[in-house]
Automatic annotation (TrEMBL):
Name of the molecule in the record: Adenosylhomocysteinase
Alphabetized UniProt keyword annotations: Cytoplasm, Hydrolase, NAD, One-carbon metabolism
Location in the cell: Cytoplasm
UniProt EC number: 3.13.2.1
Cross-referenced NCBIfam families: ahcY, PRK05476.2-3
Annotated source species: Ascidiaceihabitans donghaensis
Cofactor binding mode and count: Binds 1 NAD(+) per subunit.
Amino-acid positions noted as binding substrate in the UniProt annotation, renumbered to this chain: 55, 128, 188, 218, 222
Pathways per UniProt: Amino-acid biosynthesis; L-homocysteine biosynthesis; L-homocysteine from S-adenosyl-L-homocysteine: step 1/1
Length: 461
């Protein structure tokens, strides 16, 4: 089909290609998979729907899937995270992509719908946050007569439910057909993984899922070291504020919180942390951060949510914040901050993804990316090198689902440790890491094989 894409400006393709070429030099894991499997084409016959931030790094992922034989169609998983030159380069290469930075919520679901439109239908999903999976499963439940799209309670829900209704009217039975045709999903992030485990609990997961997030070489690298680089990048590009000396409160001290606190601290901010989990609170304290209650620290300069939870910064908190406080989120969804409660306030748009909001007492807040993940909305997300580790896991997961899917039940799986170690190994040369070797006696003494895996399953890194 001619022009089977929606991008901002196809003329950006050349710029996108130049940055893609640079990114390839920083993504050794993906390039190694192309070398190892490019000829065998283990993804031949697969038709993959991708729903993941359409960035330069994702473009290298897409081209790796294609090099391994997959047919791919792509949408972004967030309305602000697309890099338009990356989308243009992918469209120009002939891969259908539907993504524009700053698209509306209605477009978000419409574009996702378009990414399912293979002639013969898709057979795999590569998801980030679970929207592609949710779309199909919610639609199939609606087709089964369940009352799941009747009463939307948020803007997001209005948009997805309207899109489901539209598709049901245009193609009766479509969602059920899609659901039955999908052979598996690989999920990128913590929040999407939570959704998958919930589905299993409710007996509602209709195909096997691979939890890519909990590969060690994903969450302990992307979520942590990725945010360490990209959080402050986002705040700086948005505000140009002096970070050193400012007081920042980071909510949540999981993997993303650890990277975010380190990011702000590295820039010279005085960082405080809030937590609900005593283990993570103790970790934060022993990493040198004051662990506090948000309500007692509303005089800080910068507030960042990293929890994957909802209603963490509420309207009553924002009413107490000082003039020109910066408020942002780096967790997957925008419901960590009660942005909806600000809608009836006076908003002044400063530039794309930066708004100043006047509170009733006259104080102004700077809100980043309307509460959506600011490292992708206000900057360009994580650097290529760390995304290479995440996406190498993604490709291995897709290969596993495609070639050995029959071995899996409709549950959530993590890739085996030898593959996790392989992903790490593929990234060592690029940064000059030299590995020591175990001799046979040493290996026997600690109870491992000399070539690994080097740790038991319960080891936590
Ligand atoms: P995690 O589960 O490791 O950490 C979340 C932490 O927040 C936990 O320690 C939890 O105890 C804490 N928490 C929950 N509710 C809280 C509350 N009300 N107040 C204070 N702390 C609270 O999850 P992870 O991997 O750190 O991911 C967090 C979010 O970031 C998820 O939504 C994930 O999908 C997203 N993510 C975003 C990335 C990005 O580039 N923007 C990259 C990777 C993940």
């Amino acid at each position: 089909m001619a022009n089977d894409y929606i991008v901002k400006d196809i003329a950006l393709a050349e710029f996108g290609r130049k940055e893609l070429n640079i990114a390839e030099t920083e993504m050794p894991g993906l390039m190694a998979l192309r070398d190892e499997y490019g000829e065998a084409k283990p993804l031949k016959g697969s038709r993959i729907v991708g729903s993941l931030h359409m960035t330069i790094q994702t473009a290298v992922l897409i081209e790796t899937l294609v090099a391994l034989g997959a047919d791919v169609r792509w949408a972004s998983c967030n309305i602000f995270s697309t890099q338009d030159h990356a989308a243009a380069a992918i469209a120009e290469s002939g891969v259908p992509v539907f993504a524009i930075k700053g698209q509306s919520l209605e477009e978000h679901w419409d574009y996702l719908d378009k990414s399912f439109m293979f002639d013969e239908g898709p057979n795999l999903i590569l998801d980030d946050g679970g929207d592609a999976t949710l779309y199909i499963l919610l639609g199939a439940r609606a087709e089964a007569g369940e009352d799941v799209i009747a009463v939307p309670t948020s803007e997001e829900e209005v948009a997805i439910k309207a899109q489901i209704k539209k598709r049901m009217e245009a193609s009766p039975g479509w969602f059920t057909k899609m659901r039955d045709q999908i052979q598996g999903v690989s999920e990128e992030t913590t929040t999407g993984v939570h959704r998958l485990y919930d589905l299993v609990k409710q007996g509602q997961l209709p195909f096997p899922a691979i939890n890519v997030n909990d590969s060690v070489t994903k969450s302990k690298f992307d979520n942590k070291y990725g945010c360490k680089e990209s959080l402050v990048d986002g705040i700086r590009r948005a505000t140009d504020t002096m970070m050193a000396g400012k007081v920042a409160v980071v909510m949540g001290y999981g993997d993303v919180g650890k990277g975010s606190a380190a990011s702000l601290s590295g820039a010279g901010a005085r960082v405080k942390v809030t937590e609900v989990d005593p283990i993570c609170a103790l970790q934060a304290a022993m990493d040198g951060y004051e662990v506090v209650i948000l309500e007692e620290n509303l005089d800080a300069d910068i507030f960042i949510t990293t929890t994957g939870n909802k209603d963490v910064i509420r309207i009553e908190h924002m009413r107490e914040m000082k003039d020109m406080a910066i408020v942002g989120n780096i967790g997957h969804f925008d419901n960590e901050i009660q942005v909806a409660a600000l809608k009836n306030h006076k908003w002044t748009n400063i530039k794309e993804q930066v708004d100043m909001i006047e509170m009733p007492n006259g104080n102004r807040l700077i809100l980043l990316s309307e509460g959506r993940l600011l490292n992708l909305g206000n900057a360009t997300g994580h650097p290529s090198f760390v995304m290479s580790a995440s996406f190498t896991n993604q490709v291995l997961a897709q290969m596993e689902l495609w070639n050995n899917g029959d071995n899996y039940k409709n549950e959530v799986y993590i890739l085996p440790k030898h593959l996790d170690e392989k992903v790490a190994r593929l990234h060592l040369d690029r940064i000059g890491v030299k590995l020591s070797k175990l001799d046979a006696e040493q290996a026997a003494y600690i109870g491992v094989a000399p070539e690994g895996p080097f740790k038991p399953e319960h080891y936590r890194y």
